[in-house]
Design a protein that fits this description.
About 20% of the residues lie in helices and about 15% in strands. The protein is α/β, with parallel strands linked by helices and about 240 residues long. Among the domains are: about 55 residues, YefM-like fold (3-Layer(aba) Sandwich); about 55 residues, no CATH class; about 55 residues, no CATH class.
């Protein structure tokens, strides 16, 4: 197919010229690709155009097969931005996420996370927390501030047990006084010796009061001492 011809006045149009310069270079209209192929048969030439009604598409023959014409639109290039790879200036373009850079490149603010009402400052309180979920759940019902959470890492007491400390004013030293205690302290205090060496003037028989402590080389006889005396016998 020739591309273009300068026709002269009264020039006789030859069949080959009409076919080449006119008919083969117009945009032919067909119902669909089947209609086109049946009509043209083998009478196709490189550069021939056809319009298909069923798809509203203009196609051209490249010398081997029919090809569609892409609509260029307004996009001239697709550039891969932050944390993306790929892009291009023509044809089909693909963009991929750069997984190697996505960790440091993408920043999501707390306000962009759906249903989260905590501020960035509040969320950052969890930075560095090493407690497990089970350990954090122990805090259910505890009114301690968030800054104390790390102190409780490893605590197995439940909220009821932790709340026993609510109102305690004893110091650490005072609390450590109970270290080693194996039974009720009050009952032990109630049974203690009250006074020694005669400071008490009266005492009921069988009481736990010590009156006087006697040091002697002999065992006391009946009538020696009074109720509440302690008699220590030693060998000189």
């Amino acid at each position: 197919m020739a591309g273009w011809k300068d026709w002269q006045p009264k020039e006789v149009v030859q069949e080959t010229d009409f076919q080449s310069f006119i008919q083969d270079q117009v945009v032919q209209v067909y119902d669909d690709a089947t209609d086109r192929d049946n009509t043209l048969g083998t009478a196709v030439a490189e550069g021939m155009f056809a319009y298909l009604k069923d798809t509203d598409q203009t196609v051209y023959y490249d010398g081997a097969s029919w090809q569609g014409i892409s609509n260029p639109g307004d996009i001239t290039a697709v550039v891969a931005g932050t944390a993306l790879t790929g892009g291009g200036t023509s044809g089909d373009v693909t963009l991929d996420v750069d997984t190697a850079a996505v960790g440091s490149a993408i920043s999501i603010t707390a306000s962009q996370i759906s249903d989260v009402t905590a501020t960035a400052t509040e969320l950052n309180i969890l930075d560095g927390v090493t407690a497990t979920s089970a350990e954090l759940n122990i805090l259910d019902g505890v009114t301690a501030t968030a800054s104390e959470i790390n102190i409780l890492d490893g605590v197995t007491a439940d909220a009821t047990e932790l709340n026993l400390l609510d109102g305690v004013t004893a110091t650490t030293t005072e609390l450590n006084y109970v270290d080693g205690v194996t039974s009720g302290i009050q009952s032990q205090l109630d049974g203690k010796v009250d006074e020694t060496n005669g400071a008490v003037t009266t005492a009921a028989t069988g009481s736990a009061v010590v009156r006087n402590i006697h040091l002697s080389t002999s065992t006391p006889s009946s009538g020696d001492g009074i109720d509440g005396d302690v008699w220590l016998v030693y060998t000189p």
